[in-house]
């Protein structure tokens, strides 16, 4: 039996999977009939019972989050989808929205009904034009079919859904920065509390959920929370999209039960590229501490990855083989965090700048061994000292790389430069060892 | 170029999408780029006036987001992903190759105004690395040569279709309109998904 459990991706190989007809042919928009016949609180209870947790990085229980929205408060409520997929390595929501935007819309209708919101937004990053087209068209078609707008399915529920396109700022994937951006400001994170469930968009109760999280809801309603809870591990329920990229023979998307291991996924991806071996990898994007070949059998669920010292994050498994220089890799991620720091908090704004200077020197074989202590000291002064987790993410690759590859940093100093040939790690390298495909 | 009545009709329709009008600032700026190719001072003044903001407040938003340009970019804006994974897989070599081939620096355009070049961050297509974007359409699994061929074809007026996108590569201004939420009717073009996106599904059907 296959280890994989395609649900969200089950129809992606059909030519019209992104159309309303293609979605309905596979049972689409059946779950809203069921949900709209339930009490909103019963919908929230079903999502709680399923054990669904956020798929955007933090892993917070979705049903519990929905339950935080105050009811009977006579205020507008908002349902916002975080489609600003930008965490380095993360590439699951983009193909999902390109191939199956209607499953997201169905999830939005159910979620909005549950929290009593009559306005919903999809905040999508601006650098994916064709995905924007597909989602925009899907929204228009859902309106025409009566799944959005006034009196949906004759049940007296109204919902307006607006696609909002970002403009190139990683930080807007942070939920409060996203809300500031959606309100028309620079996208900078807010101090919490109050949390968005109390004071979110326009200071009204707001849910912000990741694309994959919301898209998982129709299957829970259609098949029942028990069905979903039977997949995965004890505390990490359900199926999820794992994205393998980098030095593997066959990179791609693998929808599997939570708790699968990298060893199993590598087998499906045809292994590390021929003639090479695994050196380091990220379990959930560049903000999650690095793993090595010692973590091949770590269960990739929320608890398993945490226990091993990292985070499941977005399940973006970026795989690097022995041709890759760790200092170069970490420097480049650090340049990214410096570039994307919004500048609001001093430790992050100034700290990421200093981290880049020191790492640049180290990559070029300048500096001293004490610089490694300085890096760790800087990380200590950045982590947990800013409004949002971008700063924590910036420290993750540095701290974990020094833990596992300190000798390689020192080797740069010993020879006065980088000991690696960057050509050997490219996909078009032809090396005696076999090289890329 | 002064704003026409037609422009104001679009502007009003964008503002009317939102419960509060300030939220319309981002799509209005995308629309400004669809109109002029970049965000002009005139656009900033018009948007400020429509949203009851100071021009400084609009400029604060423009300068925060890298997709908003204050100077003209090429008719085809080419982005090379240089975040770690793409860089290692060949993105650095592709960027250097294009820079040399086109004879331009980061965030600059060729003299004929056809192509501009930008080092971009992770574009959510890592399983297709190395990735090059043109006007925010995907060109997957690139090499130095294929990227050079792409910009050559663009300059000769015959760009190849994106790997996962519409049948014909739209111009920068055309796609800025799409980003402003103005449909070009091309959502149905192109594949549902590329091969890597389908790999898990395919293996599960084979029982693996």
From TrEMBL, chain B:
Entry keyword set: 2Fe-2S, Iron, Iron-sulfur, Metal-binding
InterPro entries, per the entry: NuoE-like, NuoE_dom, NuoE_N, Thioredoxin-like_sf
CDD domains: TRX_Fd_NuoE (cd03064)
Record keyword Iron present: yes
Keyword flag DNA repair: no
GO molecular function annotation: 2 iron, 2 sulfur cluster binding; metal ion binding; NADH dehydrogenase activity
Cofactor(s) this protein cannot do without: [2Fe-2S] cluster
Region (Disordered): 185-208
UniProt xrefs under Pfam families: 2Fe-2S_thioredx
Family that this chain belongs to: Belongs to the complex I 24 kDa subunit family.
PANTHER family, sorted: NADH DEHYDROGENASE [UBIQUINONE] FLAVOPROTEIN 2, MITOCHONDRIAL, NADH DEHYDROGENASE UBIQUINONE FLAVOPROTEIN 2, MITOCHONDRIAL
The protein's name in its UniProt record: Unannotated protein
């Amino acid at each position: 039996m296959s280890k994989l459990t395609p649900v969200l991706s089950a129809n992606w190989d059909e030519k019209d999977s992104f159309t309303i007809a293609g979605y309905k042919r596979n049972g689409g928009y059946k779950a809203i009939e069921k949900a709209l016949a339930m009490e909103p609180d019963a919908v929230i209870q079903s999502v709680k019972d399923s054990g669904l947790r956020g798929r955007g990085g933090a892993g917070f229980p979705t049903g519990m989050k929905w339950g935080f929205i105050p009811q009977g408060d006579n205020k507008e409520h908002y349902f916002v989808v975080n489609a600003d997929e930008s965490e380095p390595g993360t590439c699951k929501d983009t193909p999902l929205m390109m191939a199956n935007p209607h499953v997201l819309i169905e999830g939005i209708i159910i979620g909005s009904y549950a929290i009593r919101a009559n306005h919903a937004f999809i905040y999508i990053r601006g650098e994916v034009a064709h995905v924007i087209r597909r989602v925009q068209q899907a929204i228009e078609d859902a309106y025409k079919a009566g799944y959005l707008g006034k009196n949906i399915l004759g049940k007296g529920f109204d919902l307006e859904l607006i696609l909002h396109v970002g403009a190139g700022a990683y930080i807007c994937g942070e939920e409060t920065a996203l809300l500031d951006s959606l309100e028309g400001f620079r996208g900078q994170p807010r101090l919490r509390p109050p949390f968005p469930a109390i004071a979110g968009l326009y200071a009204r109760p707001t849910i912000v959920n990741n694309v994959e999280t919301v898209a998982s809801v129709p299957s829970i309603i259609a098949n029942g929370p028990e069905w979903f809870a039977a997949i995965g591990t004890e505390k990490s329920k359900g199926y999820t999209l794992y994205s393998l990229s980098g030095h593997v023979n066959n990179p791609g998307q693998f929808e599997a039960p939570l708790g699968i291991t990298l060893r199993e996924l590598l087998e499906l991806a045809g292994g590390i590229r021929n003639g090479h071996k695994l050196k380091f990898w990220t379990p959930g994007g560049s903000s999650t501490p690095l793993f090595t070949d010692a973590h091949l059998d770590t269960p990739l669920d929320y608890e398993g990855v945490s226990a091993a010292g990292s985070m499941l994050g977005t399940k973006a498994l970026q795989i690097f083989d022995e041709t890759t220089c760790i200092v170069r890799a970490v420097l480049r991620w650090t340049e990214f965090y410096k570039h994307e720091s919004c500048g609001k908090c001093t430790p992050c704004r100034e700290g990421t700048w200093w981290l880049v200077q020191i790492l640049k020197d180290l990559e070029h074989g300048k500096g001293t061994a004490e610089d490694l202590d300085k890096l760790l000291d800087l990380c200590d002064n950045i982590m947990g000292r800013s409004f949002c987790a971008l700063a924590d993410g910036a420290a993750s690759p540095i701290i974990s790389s020094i833990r596992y590859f300190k000798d390689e940093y020192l080797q740069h100093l010993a020879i006065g430069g980088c000991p690696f040939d960057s050509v050997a790690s490219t996909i078009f390298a032809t090396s005696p060892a076999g090289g890329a495909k | 170029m002064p704003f026409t009545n037609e422009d104001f009709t679009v502007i009003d329709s964008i503002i009317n999408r939102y419960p509060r009008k300030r939220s319309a600032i981002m799509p209005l700026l995308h629309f400004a780029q669809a109109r002029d190719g970049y965000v002009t001072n005139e656009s900033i003044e018009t948007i400020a006036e429509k949203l009851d903001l100071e021009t400084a407040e609009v400029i604060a938003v423009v300068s925060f987001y890298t997709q908003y340009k204050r100077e003209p970019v090429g008719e085809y804006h080419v982005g090379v992903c240089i975040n770690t994974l793409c860089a290692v897989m060949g993105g650095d070599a592709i960027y250097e190759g294009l820079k040399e081939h086109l004879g331009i620096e980061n965030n600059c355009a060729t003299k004929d105004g056809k192509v501009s070049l930008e080092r971009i961050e992770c574009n959510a297509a890592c399983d297709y690395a190395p990735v090059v974007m043109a006007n925010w359409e995907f060109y997957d699994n690139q090499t130095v040569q294929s990227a050079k061929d792409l910009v050559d074809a663009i300059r000769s007026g015959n760009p190849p279709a994106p790997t996962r996108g519409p049948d014909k590569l739209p111009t920068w201004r055309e796609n800025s309109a799409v980003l402003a939420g103005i449909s070009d009717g091309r959502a149905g073009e192109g594949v549902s998904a590329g091969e890597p996106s389908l790999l898990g599904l395919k293996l599960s059907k084979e029982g693996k």
